[in-house]
Amino acid sequence: MPRPVRQPRRCVPAPGSNCQAPPLAKPPLAKAPLATCQQGNEPNTPRVKVLITAGPTREALDPVRYLTNRSSGKMGYALAQALVGAGHSVLLISGPTELDVPDGVDFLPVETAAEMYAAVAQSLGRIDIAVFAAAVADYTPVKVASHKIKKSEAPFTLELQRTRDILGSARAELGFSGTLVGFAAETEDLEANARDKLTRKHCDLIIANDVSKPGIGFGSDRNEVLLVYPEYNEALPPASKHTLAHHLTSAILTLHARLEDARLEDSRRKT
Questions:
Q1: Which label site among 4, 230, 245, 269 has the fewest CB atoms less than 10 Å from its CB?
Q2: Which domains does the chain have, with CATH numbers?
Q3: Mean pLDDT of 158-183
């Protein structure tokens, strides 16, 4: 696998890339001010290695068509920039976007869900914190036509198969033992769906947003998120993705430090 680069807009393909249980009680909900979200207020923690996935994936139908989603990658890229600005090492694995890669970020471009899985699998072993912000396709065509599919009067049936669950594989299949953060883009039952995802995929934090709300989420420069921890929730009011990225950086680093302290204490008790 090629080493990632730190130069914006350079394409270094990943492998195979063709880049030319519900809670017993409802957790308390906290509303957090964003006054502490600005750059420079991130906690002073030791330098850590962070992997971030961002953007959509594309699943080819034929040489000119593909299945994708509305993700712009803006939240993941803003988070990568905030973490690098806080002095940490960031590997950004991204699907196709129109964004510039933040300076100082190690960058691996991918296109498909399979390519993103391969890139993550080969990188997780040297990572302290993994943040899965990409909107990865859940399904991919069973067959990809070698030529452009011509339209006809006959009905066209597209057969799809499931892609590999990258976030769900991090613990169970890939053996990741660091701090695991997932994103959940929902259109209904935001808290319930996010908490279910937190439990099923063994995450330490889920960052959830309601993409059905106008003016936030996919493609927008603003977002409104709910932080879902095992013990409680924290609701953040609408803000620019740049501002939210600094708050999320602080939240993720604080969580990681707390989990590392707990792991160290557990190790001491066992020795």
A1: 269
A2: 44-138+161-270 (3.40.50.10300)
A3: 98
